């Protein structure tokens, strides 16, 4: 073999060694698994991805779960000593990611509203289910949220998004899953982005910017609410 050929052969061998693997990015890291000796990576069952999340000011289990497309129960299950109502800033959580379908963006949710058509009876032509609900209203005020402007998480919903009039409602996730799209007659299409300690069962709290508007809203009982699209379920 000529010297040039020997150099090229060595270079080719080195290239094959280098390109036979890759550095794992943050999104590639999975739990280690035991595989049969002859089982290829492509044939192996995919493992759930875990992420270390350091709690920041304003974080809630709902917002963390939404960020990583998982469920609160999964986070608590892997962090049994965590107090859900008292997250400590700086606490490191082991968060299983991508265990539910990804929640839609507000723009994607708006498309559902644009496509809604009411029948002659006033019901949407298409919906997942309908449930009678008690309706109340809330604002970002201290009376509603227990937070003042400047407090961590002020104006931020349980989903991690900023509350918005004409869009946000608070729900009991056990009844209406977070990120569901609902139609409330006389009010319009709203999105389940928040929760509340007093919002239990068939109860929806509608967000308003102005305290007076929320007070004028009062309490409305037995209003039929239509779930146009259910929030993400487990994959």
TrEMBL record:
Keywords: Signal
Positions of the LysM domain: 51-95
Keyword DNA repair applies: no
InterPro entries, sorted: 3D_dom (IPR010611), 3D_YorM (IPR059180), LysM (IPR018392), LysM_dom_sf (IPR036779), Resuscitation_pf_RpfB (IPR051933), RlpA-like_sf (IPR036908)
PROSITE patterns in the record: LYSM
Keyword Signal: yes
Signal sequence range: 1-24
Pfam family for this entry, one: 3D
Protein name: 3D domain-containing protein
Organism taxonomic ancestry: Bacteria, Bacillati, Bacillota, Bacilli, Bacillales
